[in-house]
Model the fold of this input.
Amino acid sequence: MALPTLKNHLHRMLFKSKRLGISGFTLLELLVAMIVAGIVVSGLLYVIVELLQIDRRESILDQTQRDMQRALNYITDDIREAVYIYDDPTTVATQLSDSPARSVPILAFWRPDPVSNIPVCTLIADPIKKDECDVLRIRRSSYSLVIYFQKTRDSNPNWLGRSRIIRYELDKYSNMTTLALTSGYQDPASTDVSFSGWTRLGASTDGTKNVLVDFVDAPSTPYTKSPLSDSPPCSTLGANYKLVPSTAATTATPATSFFGCVRDPSPTIADASGNGNQDAYLFLRGSIDGAGGSIGIRTGNDSSLPTLETRVLMRGVIDKTPTN
Done:
C-alpha cells in the first residue's frame, strides 16, 4: 500500500509545480553563474600564486644571504691566517698567466699552509732538495698565494648570478714525492725575493681556481637599499688604509658589491716600531637576480641584498720588531 501512496504524492507535487509555474535554470542564468564562479576562482588562484612567489622569494633571499655570510666567514678565516696582504692586488695578479678571464682581483695575500706527506729526506739524492726537505720537516708548512677574484656573469650555465667570487691558490709543491715546484711558483721568503715585490718564476703559473660563491651582486650596481653611509669608506679609517680594488665605489649609488679596506703592509706605515699586524675591513653584497627560475623572481634594485661587513685582524706577521 505504500507504493500507491508514494505515486499519488509525486503526482500531486508535479501538478503543484506546473500550477505555480516552477521550472529549472535558464541558459543565461547558467552562463552568468559560470562567469561569476570563474572570476572568483581566478582571484583565488592569483592570490595563491602571489603567496607562492612571496614564499619562494623570501626563501631565496634568506638562502642567498646565508651563502654571502658563509663566504665572508670563509674569506675572513683565510685572511686571519695570512702573513702579508697586498694593498694593491693587481700588482701580484698581473704576474699570473692563468687568472680567471674577465675578472677583477679583490684581495691578494700570502698564507702558510700545512704540508703533509713529506718524503723521507735521506732517500733524496739531490743535495739541494734534501736540504729543502730537512727544512720542510721542521717548518711543516709552506707559503701559498691566495687571490680572490670577482667575475661577472657570462655564458656558463652553471653560474646564474650577476657575479661570482673565485678563489685562486698557487701552492708551492705540485708533487710532494719529488718536492717538485708548481709552475710559476717562487718562494717569497727565499733570498732576493720579497712578499711585496714577488714575481713569478718562469713563463707561466699553474694555480687552482674554484668558485667560492655565486649570486654576488654586480661589481657596480646602482641601488637604494641599505646604503653604505653606515659603513665609512677607507679614507675615514685613516691614511694607513687602502681601498681594494682601487676602483671600488664606496658610496650608495653605485656601490661596489665586493671590496675591502686593507691596512698598508709597509713597516714604516703599519707600525712605527716595526712591521705590525695588518687588518682589513671587508664588504660583500649578494643579489637574487637570476635565482627565480620558473617562479619568476623580480630583477633590478629589488634583487639586491643588504651589504655585509666584517673586520678581520691578521694573526701572522713577518719580520716583526717588538718594542718591549
